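Wed. Picked up where I left off yesterday with Luciferase-like monooxygenase. The coffee machine is broken again, so keeping this brief.
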Amino acid sequence: MTTRQPEFGLFLIPEADNYAGLTDLAAYADTHGLDLIGIQDHPYQRRFFDTWTLITALAVRTTRLAFFPDVANLPLRNPAVLAKSVASLDIITGGRVHLGLGAGAFWDAIAGMGGARLSGGEALRATGEAIEIIRAMWSDERTARVPGEFHRLVGIHPGPAPAHAPGIWLGASGPRMLALTGARADGWLPSSSWATPEFLTEAGARIDDAAAAAGRDPSAVRRLYNVSGTITDGADGGFLAGPVERWVDDLTALHLERRVDGFVFWPSEGDAAAQVRRYTEQVVPAVRAAVAR
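Structure written out below (C-alpha cells, as returned):
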C-alpha cells in the first residue's frame, strides 16, 4: 500500500477556438492547488492547437503547475528535437515539465501527415529507441551516439540539460509496452476510458515484474491515471459517475489499493468549468484528507 500523497491535475483538449478558456483553466488550476496539466497530442486534428506550442504558452503564464503532453505522438515528433524542447521549457519554467510519450495510434491520420505507418512490434521498438535518445539528449555526455532502426543519434552534442529530471511517462496498454514501461520509463499514463481498476492491478503487476527484472525499484515507476466522468448532484451512477462522495471514495481507493499516484481529470459531460471547480474545490481536498487519515 502506498502512503505518498497523490497529485491532481487536469486533462485539457487543445481546441484552437478556446484559447481564452484554456488560459482561464490553467490560471485557475495554478492558483487553486492543483499539480499537473496534461494536454492531448493529435497533430492531425485540424481544430486543435499544436500541443507543444500550447503547453509553452500556458506554462510561461503560470508559476507552480507541471505540464506534460498526454501523450506526445512519437511517430510525428522527432525524439531528439522533442527532448530539446522539453529541456528548453523545463529550464524556462524552473523544472515544471514532464514528457508523456505515446507509440502512436490512428495510423491513417499519422500516415496522412507523412509519418511512418508502424506495426505493433515496430512501434514498440521505435519507442524504446526514442527513450534512449531522449535520455542521451538530456545527459552531460560530450557526444551522443545512439544506433537505431527508426531513430538514431550520430555524434550529436547533447544539451542544454533540463533544470530537473523530467519524467518519461508512457501511455501503454499492451503487454510488451507495459514491460517497456517497467524496464525503461519513469511512469505510466493509462486512461479510465480503457483501463478499468482491475486492469490497473493486472497491468501494474506486469510493470512491477519488468522493473524488478531490470534491477529497478518497482515503486519508482509512477502511475498517473487520466480520469473522465461526471461529478453529479444526484444518485450514484457507478465508477467515476456520481456525487462528490462517490468520487472521493473511488479516487481514495485507487490511490490506496491500486497504487495510483496521480489523477488527471476531464469531465465527460456537463459544464466543463463547473465540473473542474467541483473536482478542485470539493473532491481533491477530501481525497487528500482521506489519504492523510
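Quick read: The longest strand covers residues 222-231.
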